[in-house]
Specification:
single chain, two-stranded antiparallel sheet, Rhopdopsin 7-helix transmembrane proteins, 324 residues, globular
């Protein structure tokens, strides 16, 4: 039996709610990490705290609007199947328009913090960020244009649907390019620094833990966006669910980097033996660097890398099993 629009809408809220629950847990842990050092009289990373709080409010709002639409479709308009379907397809409904605007704000904020990390890790080199900034501006323009067309839509203006679709597709591609470029450039810089100081070829056991964690976390959003774009170009009924899950995934990807850096969790096995720590690496993945700190700390048996702008100071021992 083929999946219908009504069934896809119901599946969408299930997927979004499950991911929203995961986001809540990870977000709370990351906020504890960001604020947990207040008692130690260390400076608070205001950029990351503000971004984390803003993402929490926006993603919660998006989920609440999704719940409101489910009630509207399956309870208040459930006199018959056609009533439910008609409500789902009424894209000019205020809750749909509001949810679209919130979605654009969530993705814009997620892309902005990624560009900020790129800017910091490349030594505040704005020229490296130009491609990302151009794509970022394209996404914002596409998101606003699509939202305006949705708000102005009426059944008599059904001819505007292809325009809305093209704006959404263009925005998705712009956001995807922003993430791929920024993630690649950040990873390349960390990899380049690792090779410069180790003097060895890149191998899985020699890549820094921060690099692996960053790439693994960034792949979440990149994969979700790629699937969503594929559904849009394929005119799949899964377009709605694929877009709805992006909202919590943006927050999960953002918070997961902070949590995994603190806990040292990675898909791959931890490296052993000699390692190099770049003091800017931890700081940039947390959103800020401190130019007054030493750029590198190397020790054969015991290495300590500290950045005042990180929410925590990280301590790595040779077996890499313990984090302070």
């Amino acid at each position: 039996m083929a999946l219908t629009t009504v069934s896809a809408s119901l599946a969408s809220i299930c997927f979004e709610s499950a991911l929203f629950g995961i986001f809540l847990i990870i977000s709370m842990i990351s906020m504890i990490i960001l604020l947990g050092h207040w008692g130690r009289k260390q400076p608070v990373n205001k950029v990351m705290v503000t971004t984390s709080a803003a993402l929490f409010l926006l993603i919660t709002t998006h989920w609440a609007l999704s719940i409101a639409r489910v009630f509207g479709a399956f309870i208040y308009s459930a006199d018959n199947h056609q009533g439910t379907l008609l409500y789902i397809l009424t894209i000019e409904d205020p809750t749909y328009v509001a949810r679209s605007l919130v979605f654009v704000a969530i993705c814009s904020l997620g892309d902005a913090i990624l560009i900020y990390r790129l800017y910091i890790v490349w030594g505040r080199n704005i020229w490296v960020c130009i491609p990302s900034i151009i794509c970022y501006m394209g996404y914002i323009a596409s998101g606003i244009a699509a939202s305006v067309l949705v708000a102005q839509f009426t059944p008599a203006k059904s001819s505007s649907l292809p325009k809305i679709t093209r704006w959404i597709q263009g925005g998705g591609i712009a956001s995807l390019v922003t993430n791929i470029y920024s993630t690649t450039m950040i990873a390349f810089h960390i990899w380049q620094s690792q090779r410069r100081f180790t003097g060895t070829d890149l191998s899985q056991n020699r890549v820094s833990r921060a690099l692996r964690i960053f790439i693994e976390s960034a792949l979440l959003y990149t994969t979700a966006t790629t699937v969503s774009i594929g559904c849009q170009f394929g005119n799949s009924v899964w377009v709605g669910p694929s877009l709805d899950v992006i909202s919590p995934i943006v927050g999960i990807s953002f918070s997961l980097i902070l949590v995994r850096l603190r806990l040292g969790i990675s898909i791959f096995a931890a490296p052993t033996g000699f390692s190099v720590g770049d003091s800017s690496t931890m700081g940039v993945l947390h959103g800020r660097s401190n130019d007054s700190m030493p750029r590198l700390a190397i020790q054969m048996q015991h290495m300590v890398t500290r950045d005042h702008d990180c929410p925590q100071a990280f301590e790595k021992k040779q077996n890499f099993d313990t984090y302070s």
